[in-house]
Amino acid sequence: MHVRAYNYWVSLLHGRPCPLIESLDPAGIADFGPNSVLLDFTAGRDDAEIRFLGHALREESGTDSSIVRMSQVPSRSLLSRLTDHYLQIIANRAPIGFEAEFVGHRGFPMLYRGILMPFSSDGEAIDYLYGVINWKEVVDASVQSQLAAELSEARRTTTPRRTPVIATAAAWADGPSAPIETMPAAPAAPTLSEQLVATRRTIEAGPASPEALARAYDFLIASERDAAGYAAMLAGAGLTVDPRAPVEALVRLLFGTPHEGNARLLARAHRAGVGEGEFAEWIERTGARPAAAPNVIVPVAPGDEPYVLLLARAVDAGSVEIIGRVAADAAFVDAAVRDLGY
Fold it and tell me: Nearest 5°: CA angle at 251, between 1 and 289?
């Protein structure tokens, strides 16, 4: 559900870094509207106003129409969990997915998964957030044992000529009344948006740590598997890809700043064919490390040759980064001068 919500958010961008709030009609979204909430921060970030609350979330929270602000939301409801994430969304100006477990007001553990997406009233300020949340309740061990015993008894007494059919419960229910899983489902592969969230969290904990770089490299591999999703993320963040240095946009998306040394290291690993999950081993084997942006001083002594040979790297369409002076004999330098027409 949260993936469909993200795709819907992308469809509203229309070339902007963030959709306009006027393009959103949560009450008209039959798919995930009942599981959604719209928060209004135009009056400040301390206590958001609830502009829309889908009936499924309203029922789970045990609230009525009198609840109009986040401070009025019951503390053990799903809506209360949003306060852990909305300031991060405003700071990053990009959608963020989340999932966790907690004990709800009904006394059962709850597994929930969702996404918060930014909206703007003027195309620049992030003053609205639209959230979509999906969840399920998990029964305790005694109830689970009782269900297993009843299922076993039902199988034992079933007529041999009939084959019992066991329905597989949905991995994520659309509310607390959905079926309870009786068999563990295989974990789904994380989506690109989920990997973006996980990678940014690791980077926030330690931007220069080996774990952050390894996460960033795995995200690079994942972005190639979901090129459309990655392109939408870049568009949402207002980033464009330089064909000569494509990894730089990815590093800006993850780290928030250029970090050219990280970009060069990730690009080097990619050229070397390092696979997903192999970055840490490659670093240990090769001893590669992010290089700081060079601060080059080129010595030219009095009486030196009239020309020196420099090596430079193209940074963008209008500039180069000097790497250093190339040691070359006079004949080689003279040949280079002639090639340039001097």
Answer: 130
Distance CA 104, CA 102 (A): 6
What is the C-alpha separation between 234 and 241, in angstroms, rounded? 8
Is residue 216 within 8 A of residue 265, CB to CB? The reply is no
Neighbour-count burial of 241, counting CB atoms closer than 10 A to its CB (0-12 exposed, 13-18 middle, 19+ buried) = middle
| Residue 128, amino acid | Y
Q: How many CB atoms lie within 10 A of CB 148?
A: 11
Phi, psi of 50 (to 5 degrees): -90, 105
pLDDT in tens, 126-163: 999 999 988 876 655 555 566 566 666 666 665 544 44
Rounded CA-CA distance 130/40 in Å is 9
The CA distances from residue 201 to 139, 181, 255, in Å, are: 30, 30, 10
Nearest to 36 by CA among 158, 121, 119, 144: 119
Question: Are the C-beta atoms of 18 and 236 separated by less than 8 Å?
Answer: yes
Which residue from 49, 8, 10 is spatially nearest to 25, judged by alpha carbons? 8
**Which residues have a Cβ under 8 Å from the Cβ of 1 and sit 6 or more positions away?**
31, 32, 35, 113, 132, 134, 172, 174
Instruction: Tell me the per-residue pLDDT of 100-136, one tens digit each, with 9 for 90 and over.
Output: 777 665 556 778 888 889 999 988 889 999 999 888 7
From CA 167, how far away is CA 151, in angstroms rounded? 12
CB-based contacts of 326, cutoff 8 Å, min separation 6: 309, 310, 311
Count of H helices and E strands in the chain? 11, 7
Q: Kindly state the DSSP code that residue 340 receives in the 8-state scheme.
A: T
